[in-house]
Amino acid sequence: MIEVIEPASAEVMAEVPRAGAEEVDEAVARAKAAFPAWRAVAPADRSRLLRGLADGLEARAGDLAVLEARNAGKPIADARGEIGMVVECFRYYAAAPERLLGQTIPVAGGVDMTFREPLGVVGLIVPWNFPLVITSWKTAPALAAGNTVVLKPAELTPLTAIELERVALEAGIPEGVLNVVAGPGSVCGQRLVEHPDVAKIAFTGSTEVGRGIAAGAARTIKRVTLELGGKSANVVFADADIEAAAAAAPFAVFGNAGQDCCARSRILVQRDALDPFMAALERTVRSMVVGDPLDEATQMGPLISESHRETVASFLDGEVPVAFRGDAPDGPGYWFPPTVLEPSGNDVRVAREEVFGPVAAVIPFEDEAEAVAIANDTIYGLSGSVWSGDGARALRVARALDTGVISINSNSSVRVSTPFGGFKQSGVGRELGPDALEHYTDVKNVYYATEEG
Ligand code: NAP
Ligand code: MG
Asked: Of 39, 226, 256, 270, which alpha carbon lies 20 to 30 A from 110's?
């Protein structure tokens, strides 16, 4: 059995059966058997079934939010927002089956047309930081496009994925179309990557594990999409609304206790604005409410596990000066206070590696060129923000940053209808928006001869 831990109390909150390689093989076999009938479901009927799934999730939204808040240790207000996004995601892709359009292409001697065909069985591997949200980003377009799914949630947070499977069956989605296998990545994830009957792996997780998945998938030429780590920058120019930027910046890095691939964990501040920015940032950080995830007022919960807390703590090595910290409860639970560091530059470990915890590094810059150079000096390229009162400059900098997602005068990273994904070692492919559907289909070209010879 998997003992599922509640990070705020460090106590077991549930036990679920632990799947192994055999259960993965059985799930793949069920998904393979279900594929021909699922791809043949009339587009309007597939839409209706996915809308039913969205309705079923919406009807249980309150319970799902509590489950997610307890299991992932996230504030209940955030968890509620996440379940709202899950419902929205299934509704968005429910419209897709009737919109998977092909093309007709003028050619000599006949008619040429393209079709977007489903891939078959797709393997979805999901992390623990946004368990059901990231599950929905993959499951909804995969099913809409006519694939069947084997879904592996993170072993630390399997509960909402198990609920999703149940709700899908209740909504009338046939047995075998969506199969959840809860078990360790090194066993269940790896088996999915190796399995000859799995056509594609969609993975969200660390860049390190992502590299192994890309290599493993190469053996059977699986399609692969990867959503990996980040070291994103929040770039604050002196001409920005400094109070607004400093009030927003903490939530861009301490949201979800920093366990966010989009965390703007490097805050680059133009030197002229450094003093007022730091003063405003300190006020916000010191007033952050860190505590019980089920309390409506909570803004930040605990980290996911004790071993993860140790990893995060290792970034406070005594060499990088601490500017200030907020409060956090004492144990039990894996608490860590919001922490702001002032490294000497972009070369130290905390500015180069993903912390995945509530630790921000503030780095000053002189001018636009230096801001862009520092922001781009990373192996990652997932997210980021630019704060400036000069619209032309903000757009110029947004264009110059090597990153897949960027927002101006905002923390926003993700909307269901717009593409999300990374440049450089932050990933391959895109989720959400129309783009995701392309990653769950292959293009077939059909030529029909209408002339003799
Ligand atoms: P992780 O350790 O890479 O694990 C992610 C998933 O992969 C889990 O389900 C894990 O299973 C599984 N896994 C582990 N080893 C595997 C293997 N050898 N073969 C196949 N699957 C394997 O990542 P995490 O610690 O859960 O999540 C944090 C990371 O995710 C961060 O780097 C973060 O930036 C990234 N992330 C990226 C995005 C994005 O969209 N770009 C979004 C969220 C998070 P078990 O954990 O059950 O063993
Ligand atoms: Mg991990």
From this structure: 39
Q: How confident is the model at residue 211 (pLDDT cuts 50, 70, 90)?
A: very high
The average pLDDT across 41-62 equals: 98
**Preceding peptide of 332 cis, ω within 30°:** yes
Q: What is the arithmetic mean of pLDDT over 212-228?
A: 97
Ligand 2 mean position to 312 CA, how many Å? Answer: 13
What is the CATH code of the structural domain delimited by 2-228+422-448?
3.40.605.10
Please determine, for residue 231, whether its predicted confidence score (pLDDT) is greater than 90: yes
Question: Does the beta carbon of 127 sit less than 6 angstroms from any atom of ligand 1?
Answer: yes
List Cβ neighbours of 310 (8 Å cut-off, separation of 6 or more): none
% helix, strand, coil for the chain, step of 5:
40, 20, 40
Q: How many CA atoms lie within 13 A of 314 on its CB side?
A: 11
**What are the extents of the domains in the chain?**
2-228+422-448, 233-408
pLDDT over threshold 80, residue 100:
yes
Ligand 1 centroid from CA 205, angstroms: 3
- Asked if 261 is an active-site residue, the reply is yes
Q: Which residues pair with 106 in a beta bridge?
A: 111
Q: Which one of 2, 180, 186, 209 would you pick to mutate in the ligand 1 pocket, going by the greatest count of ligand atoms within 8 A of its CB?
A: 209
Q: Which atom, in ligand 1's list, is nearest to the CA of 153?
A: 9
* Inter-residue contact 450 to 109 (CB < 8 Å): yes
Neighbours of 367 (CB within 10 A): 11
pLDDT for residue 239 = 98
Give yes or no for a contact between 151 and 227, defined as CB atoms under 8 angstroms apart: no
CATH architecture classification, 233-408: 3-Layer(aba) Sandwich (3.40)
| Residue having the nearest C-alpha atom to atom 31 of ligand 1 | 206
Q: Do 55 and 212 form a contact (C-beta atoms < 8 A)?
A: no
**152 CB near ligand 1 (under 6 Å):** yes
Q: Mention every residue, 6+ apart, whose C-beta is less than 8 A from residue 243.
A: 280
Which amino acid type is present at position 356? Answer: F
What pLDDT digit, counting tens, does each position of 269-302 carry?
A: 999 999 999 999 999 999 999 999 999 999 999 9
Instruction: Please say if the pLDDT value at position 331 is more than 90.
Output: no
State whether the beta carbon of 204 lies less than 6 angstroms from ligand 1. Answer: yes
Q: Indicate whether 109 pLDDT > 80.
A: yes
